[in-house]
Write a sequence for this structure.
């Protein structure tokens, strides 16, 4: 099991935990606050029970890095309205199916007869457009820097093939601006960042440099297996405990280069430009989203199928916003495990397999 | 067969239906009882000291043929296994088929052949059946229902209430192949995975298990919902729990890698040739040895044990040396964004 089993080795994991304990022994309970920004990290932490083997001094906070979780109601409502239009096919990743909008979900619309197809790769959506020449295929473009190049590629291909029945509803978001927004929030206290490995494959390590420079907080770009995460935590704890100069380090060296993937970034820049974007539970963040450039406007669902969506006045006691910022844990939410469950999610953090609430519910038995 | 497609008239009760049934089902199923084409099969099951086991299941799968199996094989194995895990010997099956108008007759015949072949291997006889055709669009090509009858010695007692702390949990091999084989065959991933379904009749293996020990407390085949669902069903509402050892659960590298790619967890993937056996710890060795000798049990492993605490829950000792809860699946596993 190359590249999996080595990073799930129990003996190595135990050694790393012992080392972390040694480094953190002088700290009181909950004093070292480490935020894992990425949803896949949250999943691994839950799946392998990592929270429980760490010393009490270390508190792991889950950040805003689950693309489904931060997608606002307005986006979902737009997608739902598009699915109700005649002769449209919605192409989407599976996780979006059950995300509640303000009045419905794609799963419910599908049962009502809307054409919604679950895809595994954005290029599948272009193929769907090939197969249904009489229908408008709308790809839901959701995801961070990891997913954007693949969506950009789908747009590029559709452009080259002069496809007129394909377009993308871009809800893409960028991670570093969200981290900057978190750091400007006075109530958020973070001592170290476990930066997302896959996002960094594309953007490299430079976009995080402002964090140690301006905020004096160390960052480690970590992989997704238990040994990766423990080693990343050890690297952070060492920096913090020994008061070393904060910096951006790469633990996930087998995949991430400091310069990132230039080719992938070029295709992003070719297709998309930066724009302000609304994050669910956090609000509007400047330059944190990606819109399709004007020269590809015929592939932009917002231009092709303009629909009016009201800002939802939906009020629930869901505290997803505070959870996404690492201010609260799911256990502190009144709805968690009661009226909000994976079968019946109120907030998106419970829907997505990478959502903090779903991970806590599924793996940590907190109900 | 003259006609290459199934027409509505094939289900009308007339001559064409009769010839189709004879030329496909009676021919392949090759049963003296079925050949009589009576309204019911009359069966001799007067075994002294036995009780009857009776079960039914309906099958629909897309695509109809996938690496390692097809809907016909599935329809026989599924029902055979449901009887076998009760500690019974499956004897007779029924076969109800609903076909969508326009299905290729050759395809129907291949499915019937596969059912017949699987039944022969499993030593069961398909003794009665039904065949209907519905208009195009009213069904997805073919649906199959099979019911099965088996007999069980009166003294063979299994049941989830009989499990005790210290009992071991054994599985007969690697998990997750069936669901991934079917998904790959839909060509959803655009890659060749080389994963084959584990679909198999387990009555032979289970007979060996029961021969080896009379301390088998419970057996169940972990199909939809995977081993996570089955293990949770075992302890649900009881004062027992199950502790799983993640590093002992057999998973192939192919399944493990594909799961990582898709964001799936093998614990939740359907199997069609697996059985979970809970057995008294004294007999673990005997059972495991017997299982490993059987072709469908070569990779058998002890994957956990019954514990007193936590009650009604499944927990797992993870590869990182920690513990976590194993919940039943909510909804279905959906391929993720990144």
């Amino acid at each position: 099991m190359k590249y999996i089993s080595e990073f799930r080795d129990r003996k190595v994991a135990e050694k790393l935990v012992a080392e972390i304990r040694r480094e953190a022994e002088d700290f009181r309970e909950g004093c070292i606050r480490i935020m894992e920004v990425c949803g896949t990290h949250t999943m691994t932490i839950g799946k392998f029970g990592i929270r429980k083997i760490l010393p009490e001094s270390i508190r792991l906070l889950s950040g805003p890095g689950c693309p489904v979780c931060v997608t606002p109601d307005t986006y979902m409502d737009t997608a739902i309205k598009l699915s109700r239009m005649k002769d449209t096919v919605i192409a989407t990743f599976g996780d979006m199916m059950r995300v509640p909008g303000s009045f419905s979900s794609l799963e419910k619309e599908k049962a009502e007869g809307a054409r919604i197809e679950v895809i595994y790769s954005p290029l599948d959506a272009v193929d769907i457009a090939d197969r249904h020449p009489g229908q408008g295929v709308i790809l839901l473009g959701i995801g961070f820097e990891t997913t954007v190049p693949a969506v950009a590629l789908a747009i590029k291909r559709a452009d080259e093939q002069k496809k007129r029945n394909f377009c993308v509803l871009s809800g893409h978001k960028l991670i570093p601006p969200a981290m900057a927004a978190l750091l400007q929030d006075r109530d958020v206290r973070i001592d170290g960042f476990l930066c997302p490995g896959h996002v960094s494959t594309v953007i490299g390590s430079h976009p995080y440099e402002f964090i140690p420079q301006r905020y004096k907080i160390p960052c480690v770009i970590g992989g997704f297996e238990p040994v990766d995460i423990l080693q990343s935590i050890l690297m952070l704890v060492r920096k913090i405990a020994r008061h070393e100069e904060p910096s951006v380090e790469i633990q996930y060296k087998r995949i991430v280069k400091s310069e990132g993937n230039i080719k992938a970034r070029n295709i992003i820049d070719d297709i998309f430009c930066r724009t302000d974007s609304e994050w669910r539970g956090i609000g509007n963040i400047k330059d944190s989203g990606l819109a399709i450039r004007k020269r590809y406007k015929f592939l932009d669902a917002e231009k092709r199928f303009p629909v009016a969506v009201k800002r939802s006045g939906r009020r629930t006691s869901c505290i997803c916003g505070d959870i996404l910022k690492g201010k609260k844990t799911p256990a502190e939410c009144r709805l968690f495990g009661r009226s909000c469950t994976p079968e019946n999610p109120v907030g998106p953090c419970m829907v997505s397999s990478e959502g903090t609430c779903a991970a806590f519910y599924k793996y940590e038995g907190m109900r | 067969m003259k006609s290459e497609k199934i027409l509505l008239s094939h289900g009308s009760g007339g001559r064409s239906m009769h010839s189709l049934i004879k030329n496909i089902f009676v021919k392949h199923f090759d049963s003296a009882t079925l050949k009589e084409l009576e309204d019911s099969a009359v069966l001799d099951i007067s075994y002294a000291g036995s009780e009857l086991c009776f079960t039914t299941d309906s099958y629909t799968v897309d695509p109809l043929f996938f690496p390692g199996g097809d809907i016909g094989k599935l329809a026989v194995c599924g029902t055979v296994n449901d009887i076998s895990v009760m500690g019974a010997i499956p004897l007779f099956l029924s076969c109800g088929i609903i076909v969508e108008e326009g299905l290729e007759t050759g395809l129907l015949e291949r499915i019937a052949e596969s059912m017949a072949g699987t039944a022969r291997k499993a030593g069961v006889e398909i003794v009665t059946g039904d065949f209907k055709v519905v208009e195009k669009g009213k069904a997805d090509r073919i649906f199959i229902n099979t019911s099965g009858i088996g007999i069980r010695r009166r003294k063979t007692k299994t049941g989830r209430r009989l499990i005790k702390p210290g009992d071991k949990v054994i599985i007969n091999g690697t998990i997750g192949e069936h669901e991934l084989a079917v998904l790959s065959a839909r060509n959803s991933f655009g890659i060749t995975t080389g994963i084959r379904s584990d679909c198999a009749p387990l009555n032979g293996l289970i007979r060996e298990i029961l021969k080896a020990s009379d301390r088998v407390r419970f057996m169940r085949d972990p199909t939809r919902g995977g081993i996570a669902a089955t293990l949770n069903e075992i302890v649900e509402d009881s004062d027992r729990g199950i502790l799983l050892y993640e590093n002992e659960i057999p998973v192939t590298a192919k399944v493990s890698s594909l799961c990582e790619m898709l964001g799936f967890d093998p614990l939740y993937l359907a199997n069609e040739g697996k059985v979970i056996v809970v057995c008294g710890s004294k007999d673990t060795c005997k059972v495991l040895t017997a299982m490993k000798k059987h072709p469908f049990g070569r990779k058998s492993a002890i994957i956990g044990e019954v514990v007193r605490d936590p009650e009604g829950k499944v927990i797992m000792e993870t590869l990182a040396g920690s513990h976590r809860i194993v919940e039943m699946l909510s909804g279905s596993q959906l391929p993720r964004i990144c």
In short: Chain A has three domains: 5-67+200-250, 73-174+260-304, 320-361. Residues 117 and 187 of chain A are 41 Å apart (CA to CA).
